[in-house]
Design goal:
The structure is a single chain. This protein is of the alpha+beta class and 261 residues long. It is built from two helices and 19 strands. A five-stranded antiparallel β-sheet has the order 4-5-9-8-7, with no helix packed on it. A four-stranded antiparallel β-sheet has the order 2-3-11-10, with no helix packed on it. A four-stranded antiparallel β-sheet has the order 12-15-16-19, with no helix packed on it. Helix content is 20%, strand content 45%.
Amino acid sequence: MRRLQRVLAGCRYVSCQLWAIALVLPMMQPAWGNEFHSIKQAQRGFSTNAADLLAQGNVAVTEVTGVKVNATSTGIEVILQTSKAEALQILNKSDANSFIADIPNAQLRLPLGNSFQQEKPFAGIAELTVINQDANTIRITVKGEGGIPKVELFNSDEGLIFGLTPTTTTSQKPQTQPQTAVGVELGVILHRRSPGRLREYFTLPSYLLTEAAIFYKQDRFRAAINFKNLFDVDYFDSALSRQNIFYGEPFTVQGTISWEF
């Protein structure tokens, strides 16, 4: 009997608790609704889009009011004229023979249009262009003839300076065909009568010699065959006296090989 009484008392207590919750719950719902509404309003005012985030960040755009090119002893200097050179950041995107650099958060504001171009500003540099790549980026492109130009950056009171030096490459010499020559040379030597020497007076007869040569030449190599006294003429070359006379050389074949250094 006592157990039954305890069970009934517990049921009354639970019933009272449920009744109290039922009274309080409707009073709390308006507050929760207001809180959820505030959260939704906050979400509507926040964007994860990159462009919106950039706008929300309020990033200042640096204006470049002029582009100036100066020749140097080794190349050229390209000056982006601005009062805020230290704010310009360079993103290197070079490719092939071209130096390409993007400068974010910057825009060209030139007196005559918003782009700059110059062809062959220096030997070894084919073209220079400076443009607005988009609404927030400047792009500078320098096309080299033999490779990507060497680049150095400087800040000055005038602006940001690009020091550009063209890349010199050792060009391969075109292969030339070896110079080959084959020829024949012919020469005639006429020696008139000449008096003898010393105290005795006598005369050496005149003579006519014929010489010829056949040669072959390729670049610096030369080979030749020489024919002396081609017709084997008898003659006196010189004499010291009537009894001391020197005969000339008979028909002679002589070969030569030479190399030019």
